[in-house]
Amino acid sequence: MLGEYMITGRRAAEISADIERAVGEGRLAPGELLPPMRQLAEQLGVNPNTIASAYRTLRERGVIETDGRRGSRVRARPSTTARERIRVEVPEGTRDLADGNPDLALLPSLADALAYAADRAAEAPVLYGTAAARPDLLALAREAFTADGVPDGPVAVTSGTLDAIERLLTAHLRPGDAVAVEDPGWGAVLDLLPAMGLRSVPVALDDDGPLPHAVEQALAEGARALVVTVRAQNPTGAAVSARRAGELRAVLARHPEVLVIEDDHGHHIVDLPVHPLAGVTTHWAFVRSAAKAYGPDLRLGVFTGDQVSVDRVLGRQRLGVGWVSHLLQDAVAELWRTGAVDPRAVAAAYRERRDALIGRLAARGVAAHGRSGMNVWIPVPDETGAVARLIQAGWAVAPGARFRLASPPGIRVTVSRLAADDIGPLAEDLASACGPVASRHYG
Questions:
Q1: Exposed e or buried b for every residue in 40-67, given b needs 16+ CB within 10 A?
Q2: What's the pLDDT score for residue 60?
Q3: What is the three-class DSSP state of 165?
Q4: What is the pTM (predicted TM-score) of this model?
Q5: Cis ω before 194 (30° cut-off from 0)
Q6: Strands 72-74, 64-66: parallel, antiparallel or unpaired by DSSP?
């Protein structure tokens, strides 16, 4: 227990900070068992209530977990160690199919849009007291939401999808509350929840989205929020179908108090239609971002939702960052207005690569998934071994541990950097490294 590391501190804040720092620096490893509270209290010469308070703080921050008589231990993936660190080093000469970035050739030039934003700023500089969001950006976002069947509601601007999700969860939940999340799912969300002191409840999914019975079970167990990716799900490429949306709406109708957050980061890189769940519950939000279609450095997202949720987010935003840069807002509005991206062409480019790889793998008896977006998910019996063998073959892929809670092992392959001539050799190496694993769903 702890080895040579000795916990220090006299006050609860000092003790919790010391342990959290040790976890972040690697002196306390994931899964490490912490001393019983009374034992540590005697060691430090403090009241056991002080230790209890320190451990409670660490649980709320997502650093440790407590399992009754088994005691407290460092989480397997503590919030101080982000899932992005669960990766492989890409040796020189190895093709990187792990980073999840879009194809640079499919991203538009930002020069004209940024020049437009700069000219507008020169004509009318933004000063304190200016409205937080540009009306033309809000109008464009609202028009697109309406066209996709998202219910009417106010629109707000955030610094990307994850910023919106965090603010919405903060607006409605408290530390200790449970959130139903896709498993496998977006690693950033799986990191965010314990960092906020929230509990993740895994929900299994298949190519058509979250499984209704898994959502029902998570909500019956007390999950107060549900986060769903409507298309281009990361890492599996799942997209919520019309039938699945109807089944999920029926489940949500029995739990009207649950906050539903829909993530549509695949906007303008996927041509599958959207089937929103929004509006079934009292509190809901539908979020979009400019990152995948226009460039990751455009840290801008838009979302709509019920009036209370949007008001709470905007109120807290005013007290913090204040607003998202109007230069970015004007640039994104110009990109949308001028049609700088052809969504059908982008979606077709990613689909051609996904389908070619999945087809080649199927011919070799390897099950793979990728209904939409830029990623292919491949269930494997031995995740670590598959990643290592592919590195030796010249390919770097993302280990599934970055995206999993309770679901079986897998690897994620990002197809955005693949040329047509790459598909055959990659499929051969994947088949050799992964072996046949059939799976209808991932959880």
A1: bbeebebeeebbebbbbbbbbbbbbbee
A2: 76
A3: helix
A4: 0.85
A5: no
A6: antiparallel
Element (H, E) at 330: helix 326-338
User: pLDDT digit string (tens) for 143-201?
Assistant: 999 999 999 999 999 999 999 999 999 999 998 899 999 999 999 999 899 888 898 99
For residues 208-228, give the mean pLDDT: 97
Q: How far apart are CA 150 and CA 357, in angstroms?
A: 33
Starting at the edge strand that comes first in sequence, how are the strands of the sheet with 259-264 ordered? 155-158, 301-305, 284-289, 259-264, 225-229, 178-182, 199-203
Helix axes 111-123, 326-338, angle to 10 degrees: 130
Please report, to the nearest 10 degrees, the dihedral formed by the alpha carbons of residues 77, 83, 86, 91 taken in order: -160
The Cα 167–Cα 188 span in angstroms is: 14
Q: Which two tokens stand for residue 363?
A: 């011919």
Count Cβ atoms below 10 Å from residue 375 Cβ, excluding itself: 24
- Give the CA-trace dihedral at 95, 99, 104, 106, to 10 degrees: 110
Q: Per-residue pLDDT tens for 104-137?
A: 999 999 999 999 999 999 999 999 999 999 999 9
